Amino acid sequence: MPVPSNSFWEQWLTAHRAKPQACVTFSLSPSPSLQDFLPDLDPSLPLDWSAQDYQGLPCLREKVLDRYGYRSACGVDDVLITAGAQEANYLALTQLLGPGDELVIDVPGWQQPLVLAAQIGAVVKPLPRSEAAGWALDIERLEELVTPRTKVIFLCNPNNPTGRVESGETLDRIIAAADHVGAYIVSDEVYRGLEWTGMETPRMATLYERGVSTGSVSKLLGLQGLRTGWMVTRDRLLISKAMALRENTSEIMNVMGEHIADIALRPERFAPAVERSRATGMQRIELLDRFVQGRPELRWHRPAAGLLGLAYLDLPMSADAFAAKLLAPPYNTFVMSGSAYACPQHIRLGAGGVSFQELERGLEQMADLLADFNRPPCFHPAVPWNQPGTGGRWPGPTGLDARCAAMAMHGELPVDRRNGDCCRP
């Protein structure tokens, strides 16, 4: 079955083509340059693949175990290096799910499994997060959703887009429900390491024999361009099946990506890089939180991890319409609408991927747009200003123009009003 398009992808594509001047929706830590790694790269490194390992560089797999805390329960043969966490999710879900199998997935959450499930013909059973409870999972509902036909429970933890982190106690109940029917749990943990409340994100691969943890060097280290990630699981058969599938897609890892990632995960590099990412990330989350707290049109639960949060938009228009207006001149700023996560009245605020100055500029543009919505509609006669008897002069604010009121309700701000002029019919 062809892969269907989705709102998430279409919004990225639209924004890319629009070439916005600012973005307030990205989630990457600041990225280093290639020059930062040149002193440690061997210029004689062969770029062929004949002597490499299908499972990924053993030294890189060892570092994933050590830097990301899987060593307590997993070994080097439990790690598969992949083209980012996206490929890791793809390999695991495609090999675990078949037509008619049930996928229980947290919503709002990462949308990739929904696309894959539709392609495979699996049955999606959404597990709702409660905004009123800080985007907590409804565990009682999960226990009702899981049946003998459930093959996979998918979690994004820390969560994209809410920034929620599930506790060990919550995960214990999820594991019990999965274990009862022999289901796998795939946990996308790409935002691990960017926790802001002191609660460390549990590692699913270390907690459950059918647990799968996926991750990458993208979010914490800002190395998205390397396309280097991993799948960690104690199920060696699943590792083998994933490798068999990859033989027919990307086949192998890219040599440069693996070697640069291996350098980035060396202890003397990894620790200061994490410290920088956490320091800059906290500063940016503080900026977003101050912005939201200062705007009556927005409210959110401050993210506990990552550089994303989902904010409710308290305006008489959809988030799609708001995001489209913000992307257009004169604002030229990209924010993702929550429709990408089936939350049509929310926007995805992100503190990463751009300079601090660009983030500030984007928030200023958003503040300008929100301020325009809060200006009262123009008052003037609901008759043409140049009708006979007016002498061609504006007769004054004697009534509410129904057209202006309707435009304001739908977010269609008259352009002239941005210049302080009254809009005219």
Please, could you describe this protein's structure?
The chain has 425 residues and is α/β, with parallel strands linked by helices. The protein is built from 13 helices and 14 strands. The chain has helices spanning 7-18, 58-67, 84-96, 112-120, 139-145, 168-181, 204-207, 236-246, 255-264, 267-293, 319-327, 356-374, 402-409, and strands at residues 22-23, 79-82, 102-107, 123-130, 136-137, 150-156, 184-188, 211-216, 229-233, 298-300, 308-313, 333-334, 336-337, 346-350. The chain has an eight-stranded mixed beta sheet with strand order 2-9-8-7-6-3-4-5, with helices on both faces. This is Aminotransferase class I and II.
Structure, briefly:
Helix content is about 35%, strand content about 15%. The relative contact order is 0.15.
